[in-house]
């Protein structure tokens, strides 16, 4: 994974989320906000979770024009079937550097799953929590399979780690 991947992704995503996010007056309510701290992890058999703070500290010199937003890097030791952490509608599917990203709209929030080798959804699909969205079947240089995850509220990036069920401290790399 290249250290500038997220800077590129941020600029790419901002170019369309800013213009296409509906107003926060939404008749569905704020059901997604009630899920804070309760979301299921999108993959099983997690070996490591790396927060953006760690990546930022290790790569600060490589970011010249913008700082990456909060995100998570989730690693597993086996091929990963990625599942939706919350229900919603597939807003975008796009390719960056040979892998796929899926953006799922959950009310006024967007969950972005990146580094997918295959995607089994199409734009506009309505999905349920725990429904498969794609797969990662290419390991990194340490033979781990990596999912990159971001969360936005409208166009503001927020720390996704706080939204998921607590994880064992042994798996979290800070």
Description of the structure:
With 174 residues, this protein is mainly beta. The chain has a single domain (5-165), classed as Glucose Permease (Domain IIA) (Distorted Sandwich), CATH 2.70.70.10. The chain has helices at 5-20, 52-59; strands at residues 46-51, 72-76, 80-83, 88-96, 99-106, 109-116, 118-119, 126-127, 132-136, 145-153, 156-158, 172-173. The strands form two sheets. Strands 1, 2, 4, 5, 6, 8, 10, 11 and 12 form a nine-stranded mixed sheet that branches. A three-stranded antiparallel sheet has the order 3-9-7, with no helix packed on it. The two termini are 18 Å apart.
Major sheet characteristics? 9 strands, mixed
Q: Which consecutive residue ranges, at least 5 long each, have pLDDT under 50?
A: 1-8, 14-28
Radius of gyration: 15 Å
What count of helical segments does DSSP give? 2
Quick one: CATH class? Answer: Mainly Beta
Shape: globular
Q: Give the rounded overall mean pLDDT.
A: 79
CATH fold category name: Glucose Permease (Domain IIA)
Name the features:
globular; Glucose Permease (Domain IIA); mainly beta; three-stranded antiparallel beta sheet
What's the short story on this structure?
This protein has 174 residues and is mainly β.
Give the arrangement of secondary structure elements.
Elements: H1 5-20, E1 46-51, H2 52-59, E2 72-76, E3 80-83, E4 88-96, E5 99-106, E6 109-116, E7 118-119, E8 126-127, E9 132-136, E10 145-153, E11 156-158, E12 172-173
Parallel strand pairs: 1-12
Antiparallel strand pairs: 1-2, 2-10, 3-9, 4-5, 4-8, 5-6, 6-10, 7-9, 10-11
């Amino acid at each position: 994974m290249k250290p500038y991947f997220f800077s590129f992704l941020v600029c790419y995503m901002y170019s369309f989320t800013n213009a296409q996010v509906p107003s926060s007056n939404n008749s569905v309510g704020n059901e997604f906000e009630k899920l804070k701290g309760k979301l299921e992890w999108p993959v099983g058999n997690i070996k490591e979770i790396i927060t953006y703070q760690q990546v930022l500290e290790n790569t600060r010199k490589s970011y010249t024009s913008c700082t990456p937003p909060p995100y998570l890097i989730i690693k597993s030791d086996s091929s990963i079937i990625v599942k939706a952490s919350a229900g919603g509608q597939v807003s975008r599917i796009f390719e960056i550097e040979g892998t796929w990203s899926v953006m799922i709209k959950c009310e006024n929030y967007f969950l972005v799953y990146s580094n997918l080798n295959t995607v089994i959804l199409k734009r506009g699909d309505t999905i349920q929590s725990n429904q498969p969205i794609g797969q990662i079947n290419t390991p990194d240089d340490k033979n781990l399979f990596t999912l990159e995850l971001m969360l936005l509220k409208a166009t503001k990036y927020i720390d996704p780690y706080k939204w998921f069920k607590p994880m064992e401290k042994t798996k979290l790399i800070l």
